[in-house]
Amino acid sequence: MKTEDLIGLLAADTLPVRRHVAARRLAVGLLLALPVSLLLMAAVLGPNPVLGAYLRLPMFWVKFGTPLLMAAAGLALVARLGRPGISSRAAWSAWALPIAGLWALGGLVLWQAPAAEAPQLMLSRTWRVCAENIAVLSLPMFLAAIWTLRGMAPVRPALAGAAAGALAGALGAAVYALHCPELAAPFIAIWYVLGMALPVAAGALLGPRLLRW
């Protein structure tokens, strides 16, 4: 059999892939996963009883809005790393830039505060559980992102797994913000960032196994 005949035979039964199929797959996954995370937060932790008052405070929107910005970049990361030959540098920069803003704000608050107040600003009451709670709440979104990537063609599975963690960690932090009583910028800059970084590290470690072709 000639090479041309073999190629024609292999291509005879192929069907065109619908446009935006990966985006639709990810949307379905997140529409299922995000309510699970919200229900988990409500059932185990409970929403902040003074959330209504917090909505009028700028720092709440820093705490809640920054992860949402990072989640938007995480969507782009998953979409890019699910396809061969697509650069993800700009999306990673967009994901990391809000972290730099949090660190700058946290550093400014610490610089202006008396030295005796620094431990309270950085640790407050919930530092032992903050990062862990964010990581747990991110798990449903992480599974949704991995499910999406398994239906795509990631050629860098460790980096693609990290992208799934970047999206999931950011959404987990936004969900946790609806419970969290903390508003100090240094606290958010340390523990929220750590909580969002944990799924990224887990995704990088698990990606080669979960996204193996």
From TrEMBL:
Pfam families: NrsF (PF06532). InterPro entries: NrsF. The chain crosses the membrane at residues 26-46, 58-78, 90-111, 131-149, 158-178, 184-207. Keywords: Membrane, Transmembrane, Transmembrane helix. It comes from the Bacteria. The keyword DNA damage does not apply. This is DUF1109 family protein.
